[in-house]
Amino acid sequence: MLAGVIHQIMSGIATGGIYASVALALVMIYQATHHVNFAQGEMATFSTYIALTFINAGFPYWVAFAIAVVLSFGIGVTIERVLMRPLANAPVLASVGVFVGLLLIINSLSGWFFDYTIKQFPTPFPDRPMLGGYLSGHELGSTAVTLIVLLSVYLFFRHTRLGLAMRAAAFNATSSRLVGVRVGWMLALGWGLAAAIGAVAGCMVAPIVFLDPNMMAGILLYAFAGALLGGIDNPLGAVLGGFAVGVIENLGGAYLVGTELKLTLALVIIVTVLTIKPTGLMGRKVYSRV
Amino acid sequence: MRVPRVTNLLEAKGLYAAYGETRVLHGIDFAIRQGGVTALLGANGAGKTTTLRAICGLVRTRGEITLGGKRIDGSATEDIVRLGVAHVPEGRGTFMELTVEENMRLGAYTRPAREATADFEHMFDYFPRLKERFKQQAGTLSGGEQQMLAIVRALLLRPRLLLLDEPSFGLAPLIVQEIFRILTRIRQDGGVSILLVEQNAALALEFAEDAYLLETGRVVMSGPSADISKDEGVRRSYLGY
User: Fold this and answer.
1) Does any domain span residue A173?
2) pTM to 2 decimal places
């Protein structure tokens, strides 16, 4: 029994890492635009297809992975420049409309370019149990990759000039302009970075859930639940929330509601957080003067 | 006898500015002397803040603005800043979520990092209190400290022109005195011309050499501060004696 629980927690942490990455991508765009990018998941799916295309073309796994991450970064930047920028001062509904449109378009493009059949996606990690049988090689490897990504993102934002400028642009655009930060480009970089993180998450989750155009739909919901749980305006909170949701989902699926109803847990978390504590566990309260 | 020509760092000619449909400036002319302090006076809504925002390209304008002979109207704010225009905005523009250190690093964003760090000591010399608060979140600073931080953030740009929007706003008289004492030092240390917007006309006229009086988006009086403070109308309306 206990071994089973530990096993569920460990693999919850492994999937939680994926949710944490996607949650972080959501938060990055939310901080800059105050909107949730519904298309984040579909963008990650598309990135995963890019990786698969290069793997099938004979590139070594990590080379294909790197190409997918870099191309996704470019796609993210392009989407911001071309689609989001003209909407900078548009009403909320216009942005939401674009996000939903983007979701549908990218989803359809994935299906059109790479067809709708479910595909296997390779793992670069050894296929055998590790840590005394609690985790598979892929689970352990993908958790490590996720942690490396999260740590690098943290170090980038904390300790580089560009990271500081990106944070500043998200917090206070006018003041950032007045010190010479090119705010428009910072937003575009944020989109690029979010897309790149999504690409990593997509490649890490695809060997488990298999690749099809709707691969990330459920994952985006878990990630969104994680981001809300931790606080949608707090990157650290969102990351911890993502891990927590992974664990809750696994334990709940195993002992509470069964695997068929697991996704319901994400919705329960979303609704509960929004009704009881909309700022999330670690979020900031935003006061506005009237 | 040849009179040495006084060079102006900044000149504005026929400057109009509007927020959407609402026009705020109706074709004003003004100049800021190289190395001098110029004050913009006027009641609430006269267009003082908008004038500063117009210089920085933060509001849509028509007309001509030149900095050191170079047209800057229509340029992006980020580019105007890089030409050496630092703006301490209304409300101070503090990055509340960031630390004092990060605020200062942002101030020096356009300069090489090493050079800027060397400048930090110089800034602490002006405002020792910021040194104590260096690692603290800027949102936790008092109003006076935030004003000091805003001035430091602007100075770290090594500006040719410093635009100050109501540095006395919401501060206790003693703190205002302290800030103006340091502004006087900054001015004596040279290298920077100042355009000062102040509600407190007496304070501004004492600090500046030249002044412009704005009323509903038009310049109604300009000249040396000494002359303006002698004007009967100004005394009655703005100085209160």
Assistant:
1) yes
2) 0.88
